[in-house]
UniProtKB/TrEMBL annotation, chain A:
Database matches in InterPro entries: Intradiol_dOase_C, Intradiol_dOase_core, Intradiol_RC_Dioxygenase, PCDO_beta_N, Protocat_dOase_b
Biological process (GO), any one: 3,4-dihydroxybenzoate catabolic process
Region (Disordered): 1-24
GO MF assignments: ferric iron binding; protocatechuate 3,4-dioxygenase activity
Domain Protocatechuate 3,4-dioxygenase beta subunit N-terminal: 7-39
Keyword Oxidoreductase attached: yes
EC number(s) reported in the record: 1.13.11.3
Oxidoreductase among keywords: yes
Keyword line: Dioxygenase, Oxidoreductase
Name assigned to this protein: Protocatechuate 3,4-dioxygenase subunit beta
Automatic annotation (TrEMBL), chain B:
Top-rank taxon, per record: Bacteria
Organism: Paracoccus alkanivorans
Pfam families, per the entry: Dioxygenase_C
Name the record gives this protein: Protocatechuate 3,4-dioxygenase subunit alpha
Gene that encodes it: pcaG
Transmembrane segments: none
Amino acid sequence: MKPAEYYQRDRTLHPPALTPDYKTTTARSPRYSLISLQNSVSEITGPVFGHNDIDPLDNDLVRNYAKDADPVGERIILHGRVLDENARPVPNTLVEIWQANASGRYRHKKDTYLGALDPNFGGCGRTLTDENGYYFFRTIKPGAYPWRNWDNSWRPAHIHVSVFGAAFVQRLITQLYFEGDPLIPHCPIVKTIPDPEAIEQLIARLDLNATVPLDSIAYKFDIVLRGRRSTLFENRLEGN
Amino acid sequence: MPQKLDYLRETASQTAGPYVHIGLAPGAAGFDIYRQELGQDIAGPNAGGERIRVEGLVIDGMGSPVKDVLLEVWQANAEGHYAHPEGGGPVEDGFRGWGRVITDFETGEWGFDTVKPGAVMGRNGRMMAPHLNLWIVSRGINIGLNTRMYFSDEEQANAADPVISLIEWERRRATLIGKRSDRDGIPVYRFDIRLQGDDETVFFDI
C-alpha cells in the first residue's frame, strides 16, 4: 500500500480535555487548542509487535496469576474484533487490558480500598489480534468500586483497554462497560463523552452464542480505530 | 434522505485512570506477572548514533508534578527510519523505536535511554528536524496527549522544521525543545511537559 493519511479524528465524539465533573481534569487539561498536524511518516507508523513479545497464557486472567486455585468471581470471556472506520480488520495488533477483581479492588500498591485482594488474580492481560482482527480474553467480571470525586462516586464495572493499531495516530486507551449496569449513567468519567452513541459503543454486550455452557459467560466488545484514506489521486504525503 | 455513509465510528477514548501501571507496567504496580514488560528497551544493542538520556516531569496547572503518568515514545533511528514497513528504510536488528515509561510515584520524574534520532523526511519533501513523538496518559487526561520533543543542539534544523514553524506563536515553540546538558559524559535532554497554564506545552491533534 502506498503511504496514505488517516482520517481526521472526530473529536466531537471523544471527551474534551476539560470536564469539571471529573475533577482531576481541571488541573490536567491544556487551556490552548491542540495544533492540528497533517500526517507525516512520524504519524502513519507505529510499533510492531510479534508473538515473541508475549506468552500464550497472557490473555487468560483466570490462570495467569493463579497460585493455588482459580480466582473468585464471575468467569467471563471477553472477545471481539479490532476494526478500522472502513470496517477493515486490524490484524496482529497488541490489545492490553487491566481491571479490578470481583471486589472492585486493584492489585496496585496505591489502591487502599477495603474490598479484598484475590491472591489468585493479577488483573492484567494482553494478546495480539489474529489475521481477522479477532481477539479474546478469559477473565473475572470486575466489581464496581468507590473513588474520591464526589463523596459518593462509584465507577461502573469496567475493564481498561489499550490498543495500538498500525500507526501512532491510532493509539487509543479506553474503558469497556457491561450491558445493563445501572452505574453507567451516573459516572462522571463516562459522561465526559458528549455523544450518547459513542457511550453506547463502549458497552460490551452479553453474547450468549459465545458463552461456554456450565463454564463462562461471554461479552462481545468490538474496538474501532481510525481509518485510512485511499489514495485516489495525488498523494501529497510522499511528496518528494 | 441522502445515502447513508457506512463508515464505523472510532471508539471513544477514556482516561487511563490511576492504575494504568497494572496493565501496562505491572512491575511498577508492585507485582510480577509477565515474562517481559514491553517498552523497556527502545534502541537495542545494535543501534547506531549517539546514546542519550531523556528525562523530565509532567507538571499540572497548579505547578505540581503529576505522579501517575504513563508516557510512550515513538522515534526514528539515527538514519531517520522508523521500525515499521512504511518507516522510510531499514533499521538495525533490535531497534524498536518505541518505549514506555512511568513517572516515579514519589517525585514524578520520568526518563529513558535511547539513541538520538536522525532527521526524517516530512511532507512535500521538507525534512523534519530530529524529534521524539510522545504520548501521555494518566488519571484526569481524558484522551492521550500527543507532543514532540526536539533537541536544543539542532537549532538550524529546528528553525527549518515544518511542524515547529506551523506554530504561529513563536514563544510557544520553545516548549517543544529538550535542553541538552552532559552528565558523566552522557548527553541528557531535559524535557518538562506543562499540561496547563504559563508556558503550557504545545499538544498536537495528529
